[in-house]
Design goal:
The chain is α/β, with parallel strands linked by helices. It has two domains: 64 residues, no CATH class; 278 residues, Alpha-Beta Barrel (TIM Barrel), CATH 3.20.20. The protein is built from 13 helices and 14 strands. The strands form three sheets. Strands 11-10-9-8-7-6-12-13-14 form a nine-stranded mixed sheet. The protein has a three-stranded antiparallel sheet with strand order 2-3-4. A two-stranded antiparallel ribbon has the order 1-5. α4 crosses α5 and α10 crosses α13. The longest helix has 18 residues. The relative contact order is 0.13.
Length: 410
């Protein structure tokens, strides 16, 4: 018998807490008991307690190769057909906002003129790669609601073909009040809408720099309530930069108070990260680490923290059943490459059935990740900058576990 390689441990002079990232178990020990475990003195632990520790993944049999099992599960997930296939479709470069941090801004918000012929090719690609599996479509932009005709055409065609599909819209929300709820639910099959906010009231509108003189923030809040009432999930992402991070407490308080009665409402935050074009308001990795504790404490006042669960991949970049394409049929590795035509890897005609090896260049893990205790819940993190970037929830998880020890002190 041996200790799991996926035990993350925090301790003080009185207590130890072990989080097994593979099983998701979290167990507190007094230091005497923990020292028995740490020093492998299993003969001093009762058998029924050893069984509990094994059931929770804290202990494993000597012949168990946990790392190999995790890597094999990952490989199988990446290469084996699943019950669902995802298509993230960028409909247009146009946008009715001018967010100061937008990574697409450097490519320009060019008018996108697409045709029914483009839509038909997209539909054929979806059908040829779905093989009777459930289909998830993520409508992306620019601003996808500026191309409602495309969403409408493709959705209606899929309904005609009796395809089982659902969709998500990633939008700035300006045009949401122009859409009939029945259209969202019955035709577009929308299960979730993701919106980003950069502040409250006029600060949000000013930072979004909408191409409109409306009071957008208040209209958005009304739209969110209507959508939630109609059982569509809403994800609100608070984008934090050097411009607005000092407002985090006020922003979190507003959204968690306003929508606390809705189970289908989710609010979280994301940092605007460092980039050569955005340095004056974006955070470097070191700056994120320095401020994350205070941000984490602020959001923890309004929601219960949940430790991340085991996953087989970090995102669709590493999944054979996930495709990123624009309305003209260009294929990309990642949504962050949309409209950067230098980074397209081909056309949908080149990938008539499944991804080829060129699309899976990011499926391998770095040595750092392979030897990391957090591998089961991170799987390498974001690779858009061609390095494995640890997601912020890892740092938050460490802070949460250490906070449990602080409670013990009290």
């Amino acid at each position: 018998m041996k200790l799991s390689i996926f035990n993350y441990t925090a301790n003080n002079s009185k207590k130890a807490v072990i989080w097994n990232t593979l099983r998701g178990s979290l167990i507190e020990f007094d230091m005497d008991y923990y020292n028995r475990l740490k020093n492998l003195k299993f003969n001093l632990i009762e058998k029924k307690e050893l069984d509990i520790l094994k059931d929770n993944g804290i202990l494993v049999d000597d012949d168990v190769d946990e790392l190999n099992d995790v890597l094999k599960s990952r490989e199988q997930y990446i290469k084996t057909s699943k019950n669902k296939v995802t298509f993230t479709i960028a409909l247009t470069q146009q946008c009715n906002a001018r967010c100061y941090y937008c990574y697409q801004a450097s490519m320009g918000f060019k008018k996108t003129v697409s045709s029914q012929e483009n839509y038909e090719k997209i539909i054929d690609f979806i059908l040829s790669n779905s093989k009777n599996r459930k289909i998830e479509i993520i409508w992306f932009g620019g601003e996808p609601l500026m191309k409602m005709d495309a969403i409408d055409y493709i959705s209606n065609k899929l309904l005609e073909y009796k395809v089982d599909f659902s969709s998500t819209i990633i939008t700035n929300g300006l045009l949401l009040n122009k859409i009939n709820i029945n259209l969202l639910k019955s035709v577009w099959k929308v299960k979730m809408i993701q919106l980003t906010f950069d502040g409250l009231y006029e600060r949000h509108d000013k930072r979004k720099n909408y191409m409109s003189n409306e009071n957008v923030f208040d209209n958005l809040i009304q739209c969110i309530e209507k959508i939630l009432e109609n059982k569509i999930k809403v994800d609100v992402r608070i984008n934090l930069s050097k411009v607005n991070y000092m407002e985090a407490d006020e922003i979190f308080s507003y959204f968690f108070t306003r929508f606390k009665k809705y189970k289908n409402f989710v609010c979280y935050y994301s940092y605007i990260i460092d980039d050569t074009n955005k340095q004056k308001f974006a955070f470097t990795t070191e700056e994120q680490i320095n401020i994350n504790e205070q941000i984490f404490k602020k959001i923890s006042k309004y929601r219960n923290f949940s430790l991340p669960r085991r996953r087989n991949i970090f995102c669709g970049v590493q999944n054979n059943q996930s495709f990123f394409l624009d309305i003209f049929g260009n294929i990309y590795i990642c949504e962050h490459h949309f409209w950067n035509f230098d980074k397209k890897i081909g056309k949908i005609s080149d990938f008539a059935c499944g991804k080829n090896s060129e699309m899976n260049i990011y499926e391998n893990l770095s040595d750092k990740c392979i030897n990391c205790v957090f591998l089961p819940v991170c799987q390498g993190g974001c690779v858009r900058n061609q390095i494995n970037e640890c997601p912020p929830y890892i740092d938050n998880s460490i802070k949460y576990i250490n906070s449990l020890l602080e409670e013990v002190k009290k």
